[in-house]
């Protein structure tokens, strides 16, 4: 399967206005965000976004941690709720990467690199990146870029579009490939992307301010990056893929200085998410020490709680389970509905063979927060660990029906069926994972094998046949993107 590429249209470029909420509503925006309908319809953008997401799931290190996924999507959708011209659903992903970057692509999909989250100092800084990416999507910058390439050279555009996964998996190789394909039209590309960035800045600042975040944060973050890397031989990826001309940064700062800074505190979830990301998914002890040092400098109620949580995470990761429980229990006592604390305590319960306690804890939490995906996933995992596979299967059938693109749900369903020795259903669940990773041939072969096993069950065979037909149609429809 061919790799896919873009000049990753992401830029965390500082959202360049510092006006009040009412003032940002009056920003003079160019009315061209939906002008690209001649090239792509909204439906086509959503379809392309689904295809590229499958390619990312199969090729890039997308993080599948339920707690982090829930946080980044809650933050992202808080911003989407205040954005204009939203024509697609939005999905937010975190990609494990030591490259400082973020990007958006067709159909309302936004990917944030893990290093970028770790490098933000406030939730407003992180929100500024996401709001800017939302601006790229609502202004349909990729569709407009396609339209511009069709008017210029569709072959050049096709070659550029054909390498995004390469750029994601290996940014230096990916950018080298892009440089080669863009020979002869580099200047027009640079001008076009700078125009996109300015437009996304204006749209993003409106969204950021409406959602209750500090509009100064974007300029502050970019200024910090610029200052930190001024004497480096190579700038961070985000400043390479999203150039930061002095005039643009000056314009952002000028707009920000027109209003007083807002004292907006970062949420506790922001600090907890950073701790989980750095400690549980990172491999750098220095990063953990720097995180705890930063929290000590900030020293507000949220960071004090997050520091205790981080210490408990470290103990849990090092199998010091008693110490982890002792540190976490007071936090849970004071905030019994906090899903971060419930999640970690449940992991400790399972690690110490207190399965019944873990299940009871999650069931009580779900009564208070029935919409939480992470709690549903946690409960299914607890059932599986306790060998209550029938209950897990029942729960996961409902979950995957409502969240069919959540790979974690299908992975747990596969495990539950394996525990019940229901081989055909186990294989069918694995096939869904493969389809979500763009591996359509493998998914179809697995379903055909599952059908062979189910020959004596006509209902199950018919269901598998129908699913094979659906995936074959999907594969045929998406074949155009592989040429």
Give a brief rundown of this model:
This protein has 483 residues and is an all-alpha fold. 67% of the residues lie in helices and 3% in strands. Residues 1-36, 152-162 and 172-192 have low confidence and may be disordered.
Report on this model:
Helix content is 67%, strand content 3%. With 483 residues, it is mostly helical. The chain has a three-stranded mixed sheet with strand order 1-3-2. α20 packs antiparallel against α21, α22 runs antiparallel to α23 (423-436) and α24 runs antiparallel to α25 (458-478). The longest helix has 25 residues, at 186-210. Mean pLDDT is 81; it is low at 1-36, 152-162 and 172-192.
Q: Would you tell me the overall average pLDDT?
A: 81
Low-confidence stretches: 1-36, 152-162, 172-192
Q: Count the strands?
A: 3
The helicity comes to 55-70%
Sequence of strands across the biggest β-sheet: 1-3-2
Set out the fold topology.
Layout: H1 21-24, H2 42-59, H3 66-80, E1 91-95, E2 102-105, E3 109-113, H4 114-119, H5 123-138, H6 141-152, H7 154-161, H8 164-169, H9 171-181, H10 186-210, H11 217-228, H12 237-241, H13 246-256, H14 268-280, H15 285-298, H16 301-317, H17 321-334, H18 339-351, H19 355-368, H20 373-385, H21 389-402, H22 407-419, H23 423-436, H24 440-453, H25 458-478
Helix pairs in contact: 3-5, 5-10, 5-11, 6-7, 11-13, 14-15, 14-16, 15-16, 16-17, 17-18, 18-19, 18-20, 19-20, 20-21, 20-22, 21-22, 22-23, 23-24, 24-25
Spell out the key features of this protein:
single chain, 25 helices, 483 residues, three-stranded mixed sheet, 3 strands, mainly alpha
């Amino acid at each position: 399967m061919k790799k896919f590429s873009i000049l990753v249209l992401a830029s965390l470029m500082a959202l360049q206005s510092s006006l009040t909420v009412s003032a940002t509503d009056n920003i003079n925006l160019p009315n061209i965000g939906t002008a690209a309908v001649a090239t792509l319809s909204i439906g086509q953008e959503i379809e392309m976004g689904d295809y590229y997401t499958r390619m990312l799931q199969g090729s890039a290190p997308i993080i599948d941690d339920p707690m982090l996924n829930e946080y980044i999507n809650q933050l992202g959708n808080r911003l989407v709720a205040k954005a204009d011209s939203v024509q697609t659903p939005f999905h937010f992903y975190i990609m494990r990467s030591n490259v400082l970057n973020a990007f958006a692509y067709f159909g309302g999909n936004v990917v944030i690199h893990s290093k970028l989250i770790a490098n933000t100092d406030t939730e407003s800084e992180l929100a500024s990146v996401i709001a800017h990416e939302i601006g790229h999507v609502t202004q349909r910058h990729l569709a407009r870029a396609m339209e511009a390439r069709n008017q210029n050279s569709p072959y050049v555009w096709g070659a550029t579009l054909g390498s995004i996964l390469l750029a994601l998996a290996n940014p230096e190789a990916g950018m080298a490939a892009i440089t080669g394909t863009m020979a002869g039209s580099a200047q027009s590309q640079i001008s076009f992307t700078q125009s996109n960035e300015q437009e996304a800045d204006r749209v993003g600042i409106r969204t950021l301010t409406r959602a209750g975040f500090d509009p100064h944060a974007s300029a502050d973050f970019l200024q910090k990056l610029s200052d930190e890397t001024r004497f480096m031989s190579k700038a961070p990826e985000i400043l390479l893929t999203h150039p930061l001309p002095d005039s643009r940064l000056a314009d952002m700062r000028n707009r920000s200085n027109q209003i007083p800074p807002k004292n907006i505190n970062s949420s506790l979830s922001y600090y907890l998410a950073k701790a989980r990301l750095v400690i549980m998914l990172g491999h750098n002890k220095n990063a953990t020490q720097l995180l705890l040092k930063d929290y000590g400098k900030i020293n507000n109620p949220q960071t004090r709680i997050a520091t205790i949580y981080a210490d408990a995470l470290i103990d849990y990761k090092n199998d010091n389970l008693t110490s982890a429980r002792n540190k976490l229990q007071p936090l849970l006592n004071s905030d019994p509905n906090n899903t971060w604390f419930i999640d970690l305590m449940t992991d400790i319960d399972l690690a110490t063979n207190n399965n019944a306690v873990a299940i009871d804890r999650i069931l009580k939490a779900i009564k208070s927060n029935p919409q939480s995906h992470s709690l549903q996933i946690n409960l299914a995992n607890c059932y599986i660990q306790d060998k209550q596979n029938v209950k897990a299967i029942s729960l996961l059938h409902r979950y995957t029906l409502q969240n069919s693109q959540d790979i974690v749900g299908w992975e747990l369903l596969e495990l539950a069926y394996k525990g019940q020795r229901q081989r055909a259903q186990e294989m069918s669940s694995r096939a869904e994972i493969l389809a979500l990773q763009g591996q359509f041939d493998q998914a179809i072969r697995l379903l055909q094998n599952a059908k062979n096993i189910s020959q004596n069950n006509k209902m199950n065979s018919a269901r598998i046949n129908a699913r094979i037909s659906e995936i074959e149609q999907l594969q045929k429809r998406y074949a155009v993107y592989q040429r």
